[in-house]
User: What shape does this take?
Amino acid sequence: MPRVRASQRTLPSWTVSGTDAGVRLDKFLAAPERLGSRPRAVDALGRGKVFINSAEAKIDDAGTRLRAGDAIGIWMDRPGSARRRAATAGALQILYEDSALIVVNKPAGLLAVPLQQRRDAASAQEYVRQHMRSGRRRRPLVVHRIDRDTSGIVVFAKNALAQQQLKDQFERREPERVYLAILHGHPVPPEGTWRDLLTWDPRALVQKPAHPRDPRAKEAVSLYRVRERFPPAALVEVRLDTGKRNQIRVQAARRGHPLVGERVYRPQGHDASAIPFERQALHAWRLSVRHPSDGRLLTFEAPLPDDMRALIDRLRD
Assistant: This one.
């Protein structure tokens, strides 16, 4: 371990308990009560903010197995460790960009791509297009979409070949797509699979249950896990196997647990005002894809937006 020592401003700090003995350093830091995610833990290690027993830990120490009694410190304002302001494209935070693709964190309330009937409405695609202009007109190409009132990760390709390769991955159900949702009530069992046959109603613009013999029926499969329970609701992690429009929203509602803030998919008689929220509480949190040029695995995470964090705090209280 390097000899660099932290000053007395190393804060906050934790002592490794017997329960956490043997846990990797990055996993220990990523716990919700500490830094909250592995990307934040890795970022802190890369910027020299992490100390074990007052000795600086480097990024190569992420896999270090901790021992009971180890003192782990975070020097949040260490001189020279400040990161650059996050790159943005209009209202979007850019999570990743290279010559083949651009990955953004879309806020709720913004369309992912323009609608045919609302070509003048602001969209993530338009903001990315403006960002990509460099002497000649360039247009980002759509790979996938999320709902207007869903926040989180959206990917655009920068050329037709990259677009096709990425879309092929989605068609083969290869990308890992993980959402965080806040649902009314508590799903039982707390972990399992939602499996439905759905069909899209182009007039009503909603997903509807389909009969097995309906030629329009499409399978919708989601794997869910309750991460935290509150008296009236639950924070649920949902991993998509398929990716149909509004899939998580309709599947949760069909089981009597609509998303908090849901306006369209609600069981009959459900009181949406029981937990006030301005939109469906759904966030596209994590995405893993293969790079279209060299096949390396890329994993992105978008932190929960402020409105969902505030909702969780309110539900905990």
Summary: The chain has a mean pLDDT of 87. Residues 178-283 form a domain with the Pseudouridine synthase fold (CATH 3.30.2350.10).
